[in-house]
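Deliverable D2.4 — example input (structure tokens):
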């Protein structure tokens, strides 16, 4: 249990915060609210410290994304100049590179914010500019231009931009937006203030274009009053704005850390007794002869007026001689260390300083270096360094102190450290503090103190076993420049410590003020102020680090210092008063909310009596959002699937004495809901947020009801298929009617009219393979059209014959045949067919059963065409032939049925997707997916086939050599077949329609087979409906959209479709400045839903046509090929491969790196390099999880791209293992599918979609799969086959006890074991590959 020690040492349990969902929802609400405000005007966003730095940066990222979407990267337009303060009518035509500058006060924060922005905005180049880049040495325009080439977002410290503006290397007109992080620092003569006063305001006063301003802070005026607030607003040309969101719910969920004072009393004489080390240093300083100091010698030798004046001033003040000053500061800091940390701390400090400057002293049995470090103090005069090194050698430093264990009770440590240890020990009583993810920050004032305290705690016998300590003190402006002698901290960036702290690898962090402001460190269980806060702002910032539920905030107070205690008591009183004001306000609003009447908001559904009122509206709305958001990807967090509320203050509708403001609420539904319904305002104004949000929920739900998105029970529409089909086994047998007998019709035709001369006379041509025997027979068959009978082969015992039936026109001069053969109807004792020939009938007698078997199939197909497809325009002979193939089940030994079923399955899915998205333009994918699944389900198709009588036309009987036709009626006989076969026949017939006349014919055939299910005039009509429904917002062609069009090879007519195709479900709504409202587009879910179906049908058609092109009609009988058709499709439409395409399809941009030369001449070197922007980088999102997954996927892609590329280019096996190792995320595949859907709606052409798939490499690889006969079997399927062949069971066992491990058992035998996998899928595939290799030996 998390707890905090109180003043008297008792453990006080603290309340545990409610559900974690509240803060993410509130975060999204304030982000949306602040985003809407900052696109309209310059503002300073004032956010509470409970909001994490990462969330604040995400808010800024929204504003930056908006600026990127509207900014012209090469020219400032007149319209844009007007928005920024230029006098109306002024024309600006100076070409500049529009860039965004994100400014931070510290280097550490700069690097952190740059990393965060790079994860949130991946479609443009972002780079940091700090002293670590040696920016102070860039003294030419060429270097600056090279460093900023193609950079759209520069993240820098305030001073970097101020100096660049001052030196003329950066022009204010080249900046479109400046973001001031920790904007409260832009006061006085600070760099931020000078940027505004020296450059922004002069440009604005001269009617020149100026950038927009966004400030971010948690405390704009340090709690000192409104005067400074007004001054800050004037400086930044912005107004302070705080989110008016969820105050009531936030107060209920925000952790208020218990502020506790822990008192300590210094030991009598502590700090007064000095060891020999400090005494020796003081003695050296006291005996120092100034006349021998190199700086004094130089002044006297040069004998200049200025030098002698400096020397005189130094002698008068005792300061100004570097060696003397540095030695004095060293002594003073050592004494301060003794007072604060104890004598061991002072000894460690002195040993570190001396060791850093002259090298560690020789130890017993060892050696040390006495040379001056030539790098750390390289800007110092060399002679001064040598002289100071000689003085330091006389200091009696105890080098053993560096390895001394600070044992409690020995008096080596100060009582202040003992107090700190007690607090940590009491707070974290568990043996391992990290077992529950606990973290603690200890704040100190001085950098050197932080370093030494970290050293002592890391070796303390009570602390070191339970904590992994780290130290963060920030970065100096000069890594290798002038340093203080006593600066013992590392000059390198300590961002790795912060990363480890976030990950829990470090759980005790000693930090200076650098960790107070902005730095994104994890919420902590405990914050300890080792040194008191220097200001109320510091007090508040530190308190904001204790955001975790039950966190504590402890101040160490010297009980002998009355003023320090008084200062803390005043701060605590301020904090308590702030809490009380918040509680009083919440109580008043709660009371007002209870008094407000809500009963007048009520709706009763007239048919069912279901009730909607303000008390259940929010619950019903959440239930709808949960159902609608079910189909959103796993990377869409729970907060993104729920509604959130934004509030604004309005004028009171009635006179009132209440000081509390009236407000209205806006509810924002998840991105899966259509943009037309996504936002709704409350109808009335209310005194409480609770009632305002209830009203907004009520109005939103009524709109959903009116749009048909909830049923008459006011519940989400049911999905997932017919309840009647639940539990149906599609492999089970079902009784269907006996096959239609066409010979009855033939017999009646003979009986009534006889054969009509010439009209039903055919020539049967038989040619024997490999021989010269060609036989022609005349055949008369009334009431039949056999023109569509395709040539077929008959294998007899002695030869294989090729049979072809052709229509024969009657000829009056034809010779009378010598031979006649009559196929007699045994039922009616009359002919069914008459054959005539001038040669012997011997071969015909053997071929006759085969010929009649084929003719019967043709006659059955003709009857089905007449009954079902009678309304389809101009049915052709080829259509009848395709129908025959579509009803000829595999039991008859003909494979074209499966080909057509394969094509028809994808075509039906495509048609259903177009129909549903067009008919229900407001439906989210959570509704569309189950409805499509129901429509194309085997159960539904089987039921429709039985209702339409299709079952009577299924050709299921295999050929028999004694086949002989008869006109006997079936007398209601039944036969058995699998339900799945009946359903597949419907798909095969739709596939036949697709082959007969593309998607138009496929739709007509599908409507005939499934009447009422696909009520769509044509595919183009549905596509036009979708095009018209898409937003007509004039979205500007920003740089990232232009790059996506370049990658896709297609220019969009409606750019809203492109924007929607790139928008993830986590993305907050974008703002349209022209309409002063949200851009009208949703997330890509519906486009991905449609694009997935288009992709599958394009791939299926390509597989079918590629097979025929490669092997001709023989492909239709190649059973091995048919078995691979689904494998081919699965290989190119799976998320791994589509994700690979999204990562590999890229454009390159040249960049220029500027780095410091290591040569003796110094200077800077420019190095050219290229940056790749993959298609996946243009995904628009507002999710930390998505950002992290994208970065991780790019790293995996970089490691695997060569191997995957080689496998795709020339490999003989599909790279299943490499693809699973890549672990491309679902949203990568969604991007490809959604772009396919967007291109189809925008262009109206499936061919344009094919062109896109060709350009990204999908179709070329598909062709190579077929042409090179690539092995596509998945390793797990192959292993299943091996286990089945051995008659043994197969089992995978995955554990995470010591890393991810997978064991594969065949029967009871362990056949493979793999450890250290990336994920469950990856490690199982790798284990399957290893098992196959072992079993193949």
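Example output (designed residues):
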């Amino acid at each position: 249990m998390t707890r905090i020690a109180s003043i008297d040492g008792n453990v006080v349990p603290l309340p545990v915060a409610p559900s974690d969902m509240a803060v993410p929802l509130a975060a999204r609400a304030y982000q949306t609210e602040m985003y809407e405000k900052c696109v309209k005007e310059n503002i300073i966003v004032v956010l509470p410290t409970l909001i994490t730095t990462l969330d604040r940066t995400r808010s800024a990222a929204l504003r930056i994304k908006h600026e990127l979407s509207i900014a012209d990267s090469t020219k400032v337009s007149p319209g844009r100049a007007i928005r920024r303060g230029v006098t109306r009518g002024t024309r600006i035509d100076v070409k500049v590179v529009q860039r965004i500058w994100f400014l931070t006060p510290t280097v550490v924060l700069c690097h952190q914010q740059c990393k965060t922005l790079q994860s949130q905005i991946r479609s443009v180049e972002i780079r940091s500019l700090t002293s670590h880049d040696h920016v102070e040495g860039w003294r030419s325009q060429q270097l600056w231009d090279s460093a900023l080439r193609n950079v759209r977002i520069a993240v820098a410290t305030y001073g970097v931009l101020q100096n660049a503006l001052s030196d003329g290397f950066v022009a204010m007109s080249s900046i479109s937006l400046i973001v001031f992080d920790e904007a409260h620092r832009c006061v006085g003569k600070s760099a931020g203030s000078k940027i505004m006063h020296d450059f922004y305001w002069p440009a604005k006063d001269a009617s020149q274009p100026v950038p927009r301003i966004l400030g971010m802070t948690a405390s704009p005026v340090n709690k000192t009053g409104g005067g400074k607030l007004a001054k800050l607003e004037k400086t930044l040309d912005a107004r302070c704005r705080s989110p008016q969101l969820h105050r009531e719910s936030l107060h209920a969920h925000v952790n208020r850390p218990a502020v506790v004072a822990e008192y300590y009393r210094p030991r009598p004489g502590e700090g007064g007794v000095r060891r020999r080390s400090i005494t020796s240093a003081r003695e050296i300083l006291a005996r120092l002869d100034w006349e021998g100091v190199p700086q004094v010698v130089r002044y006297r030798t040069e004998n200049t007026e200025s030098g002698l004046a400096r020397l005189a001033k130094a002698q008068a003040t005792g300061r100004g001689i570097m060696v003397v000053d540095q030695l004095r500061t060293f002594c003073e800091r050592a004494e301060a260390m003794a007072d604060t940390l104890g004598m061991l701390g002072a000894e460690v400090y002195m040993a570190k300083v001396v060791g850093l400057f002259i090298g560690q002293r020789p130890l017993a049995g060892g050696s040390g270096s006495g040379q001056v470090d030539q790098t750390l103090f390289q800007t110092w005069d060399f002679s001064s360094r040598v002289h100071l090194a000689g003085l330091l050698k006389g200091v009696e430093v105890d080098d053993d102190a560096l390895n001394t264990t600070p044992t409690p009770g020995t008096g080596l440590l100060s009582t202040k450290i003992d107090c700190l240890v007690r607090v940590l020990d009491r707070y974290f009583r568990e043996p391992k503090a990290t077992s529950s993810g606990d973290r603690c920050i200890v704040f100190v004032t001085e950098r050197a103190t932080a370093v030494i305290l970290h050293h002592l705690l890391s070796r303390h016998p009570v602390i070191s076993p339970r904590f992994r300590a780290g130290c963060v003190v920030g970065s100096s402006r000069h890594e290798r420049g002038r340093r203080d002698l006593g600066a013992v901290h590392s000059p390198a960036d300590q961002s790795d410590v912060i990363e480890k702290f976030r990950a829990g690898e470090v759980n005790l962090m000693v930090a200076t003020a650098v960790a107070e402001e902005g730095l994104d460190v994890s919420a902590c269980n405990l914050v300890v102020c080792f040194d008191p806060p220097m200001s109320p702002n510091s007090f508040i910032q530190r308190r904001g680090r204790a955001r975790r539920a039950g966190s504590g905030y402890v101040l160490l107070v010297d009980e002998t210092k009355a003023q320090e205690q008084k200062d803390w008591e005043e701060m605590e009183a301020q904090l308590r008063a702030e809490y009380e004001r918040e509680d009083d306000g919440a109580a008043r609003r709660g009371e007002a909310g209870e008094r407000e009447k809500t009963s007048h908001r009520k709706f009763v559904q007239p048919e069912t009596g279901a009730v909607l009122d303000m008390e259940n509206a929010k619950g019903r709305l959440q239930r709808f959002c949960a159902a609608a958001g079910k189909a959103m990807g796993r990377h869409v967090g729970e907060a993104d699937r729920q509604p959130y509320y934004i509030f604004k203050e309005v004028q009171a509708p009635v006179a009132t004495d209440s000081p509390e403001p009236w407000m209205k609420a806006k509810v924002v539904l998840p991105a899966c809901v259509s943009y037309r319904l996504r936002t709704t305002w409350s109808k009335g104004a209310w005194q409480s947020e609770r009632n305002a949000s209830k009203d907004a929920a009520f109005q939103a739900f009524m709109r959903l009801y009116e749009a048909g998105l909830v049923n008459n029970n006011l519940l989400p529409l049911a999905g997932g298929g017919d309840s009647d089909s639940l539990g149906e086994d599609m492999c089970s047998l079902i009784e269907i009617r006996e096959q239609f007998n066409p010979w009855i019709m033939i017999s009646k035709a003979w009986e009534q009219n006889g054969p009509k001369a010439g009209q039903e006379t055919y020539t049967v041509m038989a040619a024997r393979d490999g021989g010269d025997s060609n036989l022609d027979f005349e055949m008369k068959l009334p009431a039949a059209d056999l023109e569509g009978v395709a040539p077929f082969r008959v294998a007899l015992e002695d030869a294989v014959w090729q049979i072809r039936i052709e229509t024969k026109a009657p000829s009056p001069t034809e010779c009378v045949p010598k031979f006649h053969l009559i196929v007699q109807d045994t039922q009616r004792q009359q002919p069914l067919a008459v054959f005539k020939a001038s040669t012997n009938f011997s071969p015909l007698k053997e071929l006759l059963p085969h010929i009649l078997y084929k003719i019967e199939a043709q006659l059955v197909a003709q009857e089905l065409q007449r009954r079902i497809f009678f309304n389809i325009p101009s049915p052709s002979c080829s259509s009848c032939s395709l129908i025959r193939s579509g009803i000829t089940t595999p039991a008859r030994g003909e494979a074209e049925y499966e080909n057509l079923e394969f094509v028809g399955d994808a075509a039906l899915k495509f048609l259903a997707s177009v129909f549903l998205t067009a008919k229900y333009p407001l439906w989210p994918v959570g509704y569309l997916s189950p409805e499509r699944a129901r429509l194309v389900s085997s159960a539904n198709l089987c039921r429709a086939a039985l209702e339409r009588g299709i079952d009577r036309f299924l050709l299921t009987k295999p050929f028999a050599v004694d086949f002989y036709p008869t006109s006997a009626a079936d007398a209601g006989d039944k036969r058995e077949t699998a339900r799945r076969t009946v359903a597949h026949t419907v798909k095969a017939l739709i596939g036949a329609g697709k082959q007969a006349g593309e998607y138009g014919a496929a739709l007509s055939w599908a409507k005939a087979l499934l009447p009422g299910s696909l009520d769509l005039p044509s595919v183009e009509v549905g596509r036009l409906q979708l095009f018209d429904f898409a937003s007509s917002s004039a979205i500007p062609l920003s740089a990232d959209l232009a790059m996506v069009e370049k990658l896709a090879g297609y220019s969009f007519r409606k750019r809203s479709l492109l924007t929607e195709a790139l928008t993830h479900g986590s993305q907050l709504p974008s703002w349209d400045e022209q309409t002063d409202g949200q851009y009208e587009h949703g997330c890509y879910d519906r486009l991905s839903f449609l694009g997935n179906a288009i992709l599958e049908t394009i791939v299926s058609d390509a597989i079918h046509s590629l097979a025929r092109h490669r092997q001709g009609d023989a492909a239709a009988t190649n059973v091995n090929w048919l078995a691979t058709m689904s494998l081919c499709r699965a290989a190119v439409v799976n998320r791994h491969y589509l994700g690979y395409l999204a990562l590999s399809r890229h454009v390159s941009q040249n960049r220029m790196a500027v780095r410091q030369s290591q040569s003796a001449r110094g200077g800077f070197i420019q190095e050219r390099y290229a940056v790749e922007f993959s298609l996946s980088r243009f995904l628009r999102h507002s999710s930390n999880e998505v950002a992290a997954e994208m970065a991780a996927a790019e790293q995996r892609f970089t490691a695997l791209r060569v191997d995957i590329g080689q496998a795709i280019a020339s490999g003989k096996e599909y790279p299943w293992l490499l693809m699973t190792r890549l672990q491309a995320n679902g949203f990568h595949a969604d991007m490809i599918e959604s772009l396919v859907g967007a291109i189809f709606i925008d262009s109206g052409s499936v061919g344009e979609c094919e062109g896109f798939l060709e350009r990204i490499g999908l179709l070329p690889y598909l062709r190579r799969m077929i042409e090179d006969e690539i092995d596509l079997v998945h390793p797990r399927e192959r292993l299943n086959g091996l286990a089945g062949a051995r008659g043994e069971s197969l089992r995978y066992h995955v554990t995470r006890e010591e890393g991810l491990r997978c064991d594969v058992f065949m029967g009871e035998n362990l056949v493979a074991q793999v450890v250290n996998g990336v994920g469950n899928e990856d490690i199982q595939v790798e284990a399957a590959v290893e098992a196959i290799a072992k079993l193949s030996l």
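The CA atoms of residues 500 and 506 lie 5 Å apart.
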